[in-house]
């Protein structure tokens, strides 16, 4: 199993370059990191096989699909039993406005990241969330400014 402590400067450059542009050709990647083509391909394959590189994704501008207003929604459930948690997750995973969902610790059970166009669109999303069986409390925070965003693979 490959660990971050096993990564040398070339591996780190590969990760950096592919994170910035996952569509780089092998030749362009090799040129950017300063290695020849064959060792570059071997290193990328090793990073993929070890699970450090888990896939390649399109960076989608969610504001163009769902809306430009980001909102983080804390959701508390009445009961934190496996069945209630699974029901909530199944009930909300198909809601298009939701771009991220996390089970968390603390005063809420879930943190939902969503994108909406405006307050009426948010109200429609809120209506969907409050209709899920077992939801006891919802608190929302609207994004004022994003200063760091590093998308992670699912």
Q: Could you explain how this protein is built, in words?
A:
The protein is of the alpha+beta class and 154 residues long. It is 39% helix and 19% strand. The chain contains 6 helices and 4 strands. The chain has helices at 9-20, 26-33, 37-49, 62-65, 82-92, 119-130; strands at 69-77, 98-103, 110-116, 135-142. The protein has a 4-stranded antiparallel beta sheet with strand order 2-3-1-4. A hairpin with a 6-residue loop joins strand 2 (98-103) and strand 3. Helix 2 (26-33) crosses helix 3. It is elongated, with a radius of gyration of 20 Å. The two termini are 20 Å apart. The relative contact order is 0.15. The model has no long low-confidence stretch (mean pLDDT 91).
């Amino acid at each position: 199993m490959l660990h971050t402590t096993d990564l040398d400067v070339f591996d780190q450059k590969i990760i950096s370059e592919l994170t910035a542009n996952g569509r780089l050709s092998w030749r362009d990647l090799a040129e950017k990191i300063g290695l020849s083509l064959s060792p570059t391909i071997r290193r990328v394959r090793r990073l993929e096989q070890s699970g450090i590189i888990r896939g390649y994704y399109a960076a989608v501008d969610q504001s163009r699909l769902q809306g430009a207003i980001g909102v983080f929604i804390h959701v508390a459930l009445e009961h934190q039993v496996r069945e209630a948690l699974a029901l909530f997750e199944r009930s909300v995973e198909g809601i298009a406005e939701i771009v991220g969902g996390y089970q968390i610790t603390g005063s809420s059970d879930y943190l939902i990241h969503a994108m909406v166009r405006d307050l009426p669109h948010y109200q429609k999303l809120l209506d969907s969330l409050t209709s899920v069986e077992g939801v006891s409390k919802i608190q929302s925070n609207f994004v004022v400014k994003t200063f760091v965003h590093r998308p992670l693979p699912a």
